[in-house]
Amino acid sequence: MERFFCSNCKRFYSLEPARWRCDCGSYLDLEFEPKFPIQKFLKRTPTLWRYREAIPIRSDQSILSMNEGFTPLEGIEFHGNLVLIKMDYLFPTGSYKDRGATVLISKMKEWGIQKVVEDSSGNAGSAIAAYCAKGGIACEIYVPHDTSSGKLIQIQAYGAILKKVEGSREKTAEKAMEAASKIPYASHCWNPFFLHGTKTFAFEVWEQMDWRTPDTLVLPIGHGTLFLGVHLGFKELKQAGMIKRIPKLVGIQSVSCAPLYQAFHKGWKETRPIEKKKTIAEGIAIAEPVRGRQILEAIQETGGEVLVVTEEEIKGTLKEMGRKGHFIEPTSAATIAGLKKYLKEKRRKETVVSTFTGMGLKSTGKVL
Ligand SMILES: Cc1ncc(COP(=O)(O)O)c(C=O)c1O
Ligand SMILES: [Zn+2]
């Protein structure tokens, strides 16, 4: 039987849609035992739902899917290093957030929920809105007023109620939390079911590498929902005896908003307030990551690190990727700028995996 649990105060809660955090204020995780029947996986269509026994949805009838996932893992050369890049900008809504949304909104459907609320820098909101549309669930999406117009239009195209908030990403989250006192909170940062979707990134890499693991993954950190999902996925594979070692996780932040970089380099267990500056990498402009402690633990556990990139490096990489045939959004270019930095620093030969997280068409204004 699955339960929510709090790693901060060790409390357990039965699963219910209104429970989005612990009474101590901390985020919750999900107690769940995944299974990995490889022969069954191989017989299924190449979507992230082929890992069905490892995804915590009870009934197949609850699944809201658009055949998402199993994105290509393509070798791209960066200054003489061949890196495997997961093409997560090829999801139905144009970003990897669909991994989390398909699972979280399927759970909402399983719970019989008719309306949800979510806050986002735009992409998670688009993904939640799309899967809600698929499931006939109403939703209110709160976003900062300066979110890329492509994302705002996309959210409304799915029929969601768009709530633009004058103020920061943090102010936007506050507004959504107020609404969450009455409407179930389909939060990609707080709700652990989202991480049980993003973890499929790890399963896909494992399968696409012939059931092996890379040495290192270079991933973005905003709220860390991909970073933590990947950690969870490899942790589950290790616990089930499917792999021997969890790869090193390297996180990338913008120098304009780097709470994890600060905490990692100061040796803190939690993130602390930072002074946030403007950045074109809107998806990682997160000053107060909900799961900061958990991200720092994942970095420690895997021998990873956090690197920061400048606005100039992001812009240069965005242009460079376009010239290679990949029109990604600035937030995704930040990860690749960090990847290049990592490749320059590393001394030994490693198998490195990274990702293009979002489609450039979503933020043409910022790209311009
Ligand atoms: C395109 C893109 N990449 C990366 C991220 C960072 O994701 P996370 O908050 O899961 O760390 C986001 C978040 O919105 C995003 O939209
Ligand atoms: Zn607690």
Quick description:
Helices cover 37% and strands 16% of the residues. By secondary structure, the protein is an alpha/beta fold. Helix 2 (97-110) runs parallel beside helix 3 (123-135) and helix 3 packs parallel to helix 4 (149-157).
Task: Please explain how this structure is put together.
It is a single chain. The protein is an alpha/beta fold and 368 residues long. Helices cover 37% and strands 16% of the residues. The chain has helices spanning 38-43, 97-110, 123-135, 149-157, 169-179, 192-198, 200-208, 225-239, 259-266, 292-302, 311-323, 330-345, 364-367; strands at residues 3-5, 12-14, 29-31, 73-78, 81-86, 115-119, 138-144, 161-165, 216-220, 248-254, 305-309, 352-355. Strand 9 (216-220), helix 8 (225-239) and strand 10 (248-254) form a beta-alpha-beta unit.
Number of strands: 12
Sheet of most strands = 6 strands, mixed
The whole-angstrom Rg is 19 Å
Helix-strand pattern? EEEHEEHEHEHEHHHEHEHHEHHEH
Identify low-pLDDT runs. none
